[in-house]
Amino acid sequence: MTSVADKSILLVEDEAILAMFEKKQLEDGGYSVTHVNNGENAIQLIIQADKPFDLILMDIDLGKGLDGTQTATEILNHKEIPVVFLSSHTEREIVKKTESITSYGYVVKNSGFTVLDASIKMAFKLFEANELTKSKKEHLETVLHSIGDGVIATDSDGKVIRMNPIAEKLTGWTHDEGVGLDIKDVFKIVNVKTRALVENPVDIVLRTNSIVGLANHTVLLSRDGSEYQISDSGSPIKDLNGETRGVVLVFRDITAEYNVQSHIAKQANMLNNVLDAVIGTDFNHKINYWNKAAEKIYLWKSEEVIGKSVMEVLKTDYINLSSEQVMQRVNLDGSFIGEVIQYAKDGSIRNIEVNQVLLDDESDLPIGYIAVGRDISDRLNALRRVKESEAKLTEIIESAMDAIISIDQSKKIILFNGAAEKMFGYQSLEIIGQPLDQLIPINFRSQHDNNIDSFSKTGVSRRAMGALGEIRGLRSNGEEFPIEASISQISVKEEKLYTVILRDVSVRNLSESKIQKLLLEKENILKEIHHRVKNNMSSIFTLLTLQARAQSESSVQTILYEAAGRVKSMIVLYDKLYHSETDNTVSLQDYFPAIFNEIVSIFPKSVEVKMNILEEPIELNAKLLSSLGIILNELITNSMKHAFNEINHAVIGLKIFREDKKLYLEYSDNGLGIPESVSFENSPGFGLQLIGMLVDQIEGKISIVRQPSSIFLLEFAV
C-alpha cells in the first residue's frame, strides 16, 4: 500500500485563512497538498491541466460559482478519484446529497486533524477496494464470454436472464431477444430418432433441485432451422440461504464428435492430436488405446495402462447412476454422454465430460468401447463464479433500503424485493403476477396508469426520484400512505419492462411542518445571536480601548487600537444584521458610513472624513461585508499610524461607485505616500498582508497610487 508521503491532495477551500490552516495541518501529517479557492480552478487543474491527485478534499460552500457538490460531479464525470467533503454543515439533507455523488467521506470542519486524517485514510482504502471489486466483476464477465460452451441462466420461473455468445450462436437467439422468454422457447430439444420433444433440463432442475444431465441422442433446434447434436447439464443457482433462485444450463455442440466416434477405431492414428482424452477398450474393458491427451489429463503414460482394466486405472464416480447402469445404456442405446468425476494417477480429481460409445467394426458388429473425455474443471469453476456473482446481484437488490418493483407491459408484477415486502405488507410469492393496481388506491389508479403510459411514449430510459410528484400507495391492510417514485424502462424483444423505486415519505411529510416551525424559530434565534455577539464584541472592544489608553508605550498602544478597530468593524456589522429585515444581508449605504466613523473615532487624532457613496441601494451578504469591513479597518488604521505624522489638517476620503456589475471602493488620505518598497506581498506589518489575502478571498482586485498621497482602489463583482 502507498505510504502517506506519496499521497497528493487537492484542497478546494474558499476561506483563505482556514485554507492556510488546513493545508499546514495536512502537510504536517505527511501529505502533499495543493490549494485552490473555487470549483472552476479545481476542474481546470484536474480535467484540463490533467494534474494527478490521489484525493480531493472538497468544501461544499465555495462562494459564487460552482459549489462543492457541483464541482465534484463534474470532476467524477471525467475521472475516477476519491472525494471527501469537508464542511461546517451537519444538516441531513446536505450530507445525503453528497452521498448521492460519492461515498468516500464527509468530515465536519473543526473536528480535529485526527478525524480528518482517519477519514482520508479510510477513503484511500475504500477507493482501492472499489477498484479491486470492479476488476473482479470485469474478470467474471470475461470468463463467462470466453467459455467454449453455451451458457444460459434462468430465474426460478424458467425465464431467461443471461446468455453467452456461444449460446446465442447455437440457439439463434441474441441475448437481448432471449432475456425474459421462457427457456422452452429459446432452448428447444428433441430426440434425434423419434423427433419427440425432450423434457427441458431447466424444468427437471427446478423440480428436483439437483444437477441433471441431458439424455443421449438429443438435438437442439436452432431458431434459423439448424440442428445441433448436443450434450448439456443443468445446475441450480442458490442464494446464500440455500434457496434455489434459478438454473444455469451449460451445453455444447457435439455433432461432429458424435459422427466421428462411430469410426474412431479407424482413425486412431489421428487422435493423438485432439485435446480430449480418448480411451479404447475391448468388451472386457481392457485398455487397447490411450492417446496423448489422456496421458496429460490422467497423468498415466500409455505404456503403463495398455492391457490393464480401465476400472483398475481410473476410479470413476457417475452422477445419479452406477457404472453398471451406464454400461447397460451404452450397450442398449449405443452411447452415453454425461459428467463424471475421475481420479488421476496422483489422486487428484478431474471433472470430466465423457462420451462413451459402442465401437463397431466394418460389418457393424460391436468390438469394444470408446470413451472420449474432456476436462471441464476450469469450466465448472467459472460457472461457480458466475453463480456467486448472480447471488451477489440478488443480494444487492434484496438489501436495498428502497422498495424495488418491476412490471411487464401488462403492468403485472415480476419483481418484488424485501423492502417492498416491508413497505406494502405482501410477500413476494403472493404478489408476483398480480396487477400493479393492487398496490395503488382506487382514486389514484387511473392517474398512475396515465403516468406510466405517457412515460413509455417519451423514450426516456429513466426518470429521477420525485419527478412523478407525490403519489399514494396502498398497504395490504388497506392503509394509504404517500410515496415518491423513480421509474425506468427497458425493451426486451419489443416488450417494455418497467422498474419503479419507491420511497415511503410519510415520516418526511410529518417532519416538514415541524421544519417550517423550526426555521421560524431559527430566524429569531439568529437575530438574538447577532445581538449577543455584538454585545460580547462590544465588551471586548471596550477592554481593548481601556487597555490601550492605559499604556505608556505608543507601540503597544497602537497594537491595541488596531485590534480594537478590527473588533469594531465586526460590532457594526452584527448591529446592522440585528436590525436588518432581510436574510443575513446589510445595506452598503448603512454599513460603510457607520464603520468608517466608528473606527476613526477610536484614535485620538482629529481627522476630517469625506464620503461620496452612490445613492443606488445595494444589499451585500454578511460574509462579504465582514471581509470589506476588515479591509477598511486596516486602511484607516494604516493612515492613522503612518500618514499624518507631519500633517496638521488630516483628511480621509471614501468614494464608492459602480460600473456594470462591478463595485469600486476608492480610499484616500492627504498624508505621506506609501514607499515603493512596501506592497501587499512585502510589508513589515500584518495589515497589508491581511488586506491582500482578503481581496483574494472575495475574488477582487486592489491597486495603489503612492504619490503625492496614498489612494487605494478596490474592485469586486456584485
TrEMBL record:
GO biological process, one term: regulation of DNA-templated transcription
UniProt domain PAC: residue ranges: 214-266, 336-388
An annotated Gene Ontology molecular function: ATP binding
Domain PAS: 136-209, 263-333, 389-434
Domain Response regulatory: 8-124
Pfam family, one: HisKA_2
SUPFAM superfamilies: ATPase domain of HSP90 chaperone/DNA topoisomerase II/histidine kinase, CheY-like, PYP-like sensor domain (PAS domain)
Signal peptide boundaries: none
Keyword terms: ATP-binding, Kinase, Nucleotide-binding, Phosphoprotein, Transferase, Two-component regulatory system
NCBIfam families in the record: sensory_box (TIGR00229)
Entry protein name: Response regulator
